[in-house]
Amino acid sequence: VQLQASGGGFVKLGGSLRLSCSASGFNLNYYAVGWFRQAPGKEREGVSCISSSMNQPRHVDSVKGRFTVYRDGDMVYLQMDNLKSWDTAVYFCAADATRDVKCSFNGHEYDIWGQGTQVTVSS
To answer: What percent of the chain lies above the pLDDT cut of 70?
Structure first.
């Protein structure tokens, strides 16, 4: 059972990136998926998630209107637009087996974590 986040890289201020989350050994469609990030010297924070039931997306205020989380097939994507310098971080995806219409930003509720992918926004 593995989860993999990919798609990070260097991008200029105001640019866009799309992160992908893929699973092996289980079907991601039956899991809520959260996107988390951790910047140097800061705690990990949840930024976006999508529920397993009804595919309801949620975003924290700091990324609302700029980030979009969605499913396509057995993948989950995080489309990040109008990137800011403070979006620079390592981004992780995580899976939660809880079947609920509302996903969580609490990392402790997620069972499976993938390796992160670095996103660097430069001016």
So the answer is: 100
